[in-house]
Design a protein that fits this description.
- This protein is 26% helix and 22% strand.
- The chain is built from 3 helices and 7 strands.
- The strands form 3 sheets. A 3-stranded antiparallel beta sheet has the order 3-4-5, with no helix packed on it.
- The chain is elongated.
- It starts with 8 loop residues before the first strand and ends in a 5-residue tail after the last strand.
Length: 131
């Protein structure tokens, strides 16, 4: 693989045949974007993020911290044990569980919606995102 840097990407595309790529370098990513543009896709925004995943015994899921350029640090958490509950109850249970791990989220605090924030260039929040 030729490369101008050591960064590698994985791309999965379920809409366009033959565009699934396991690992590519920056030059190949640029080629992929060119192919997408030929199918009418336009890049809306670009960002870089780092994912950090944490787990301890007894947890049904993991805590995911995402550092996202132009947004900041976000916490993602999911627990399949709560899927049977309505969305408001799921949200409360997730907040309670996160707080039991040392976080301090409030029920009335809305979270950052990263995709809308990046798209509109200003902080957007939603009830299904917290803190």
């Amino acid at each position: 693989m030729r490369s101008c840097n050591n960064k590698k990407y994985t791309i999965q595309n379920n809409l366009i045949p033959d565009l699934n790529i396991n690992e590519i370098n920056q030059d190949e990513l640029n080629e992929f974007e060119t192919k997408l543009s030929h199918f009418g896709y336009k890049k809306v925004f670009d960002t870089t993020k780092k994912d950090h995943h944490y787990y301890k015994d007894g947890m049904n899921s993991k805590v995911q911290l995402q550092e996202i350029d132009n947004i900041g640090l976000l916490v993602y958490f999911d627990n399949s044990n709560y899927y049977e509950y309505d969305l408001d109850t799921q949200r409360e249970k997730l907040i309670d569980e996160l707080n039991s791990y040392g976080f301090n989220f409030n029920y009335d605090e809305l979270g950052v919606d990263k995709l809308r924030t990046l798209y509109y260039g200003k902080e957007c929040t939603s009830k299904n995102q917290n803190g």
